[in-house]
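Researcher: For the annotation table, I need structure tokens for Arginase. Please keep the output clean. Sequence:
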Amino acid sequence: MNSKIGRWISLDRKKISIIGVPSDYGQQRRGVDMGPSAMRYAGAIERLEKLGYDVIDEGDISVHRTKRNKQYDGKLLNLEEVLEVSERLAKKVDEVIKQDRFPVILGGDHSISIGSIAGIRKHYQNLGIIWFDAHTDINTPETTPSGNIHGMPLAVNLGLGDHRLISIAGNAPKLKFENIVFIGARSIDEGEKALIKEKNIKIFTMHEIDRMGMSKVIEETVEYLKARHVDGVHMSIDLDALDPIFTPGVGTPVPGGITYRESHLAMEMLEEAKMITSCEFVEVNPILDERNKTANTAVALMGSLLGEKLV
Ligand SMILES: NC(=[NH2+])NCCC[C@H](N)C(=O)O
Ligand SMILES: [Mn+2]
Ligand SMILES: [Mn+2]
């Protein structure tokens, strides 16, 4: 990574702000709004403090408990609620980065990425994204099989979809197709496949992870983003990227996923590359979990991504 460019040198990695986003409006299974609590109880703050960081827990974004599943256009479930949460989160993330703090965002379902990326994007001209997920979350209102906005955040950030969603905290598009890398995908809808092919988006599905090994996948990811001259990289971690054996507490589990060690290796190598400038952990649903296993795994991955060493 060309460590001389952008905010990698200016962003003080010793200061971290934790932002909780207790929203479940992007999908229809209850409980993912308790994800931030579950990750706090799993020791997120203490773990980062132990690594020497100055950690501020900014608390949770306020999320109104209103009526659910009001149809909008028959396509976007809970649109008003998602809009409100996204605006608030974008504002909070923007404030935190302005204070030169590294944002660690705790979801909530994956629709929260609309707000997090909108806020982060204000500070980077050529933002890169690593989407660590069993899904590609690039559906539009036209292609969505479910109406669930957690299957659409990347599309929204690329400027595709509802005009109010795409214009959260400024102009669309926030991302470039060529600055995205998918890792771990294995459940991709037909419309998503067509878009990924058309735009030639970089993707390491489980097939590539199996064939190449995670080590090579991360090496190529780092090289790819370097070649794009990104000035920051947001790491979006959907816990369903891992095999449900390791992270059963997610709303949309898909078998055949990334192992516990492969996921840690990915985090460790990305930490070594010193390219990550913000991160989020989403889709932790304690109601569906087994003894907080998924939140514990999320916090362990957070440790590896932010510098914890085995020896
Ligand atoms: N963030 C997630 N878990 N997304 C799951 C999306 C599932 C499916 N592709 C949909 O759009 O409904
Ligand atoms: Mn997913
Ligand atoms: Mn996702």
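Researcher: And a one-line annotation?
Model: Residues 133-135, 238, 240, 252 surround manganese (II) ion (ligand 2) (CB under 6 Å).
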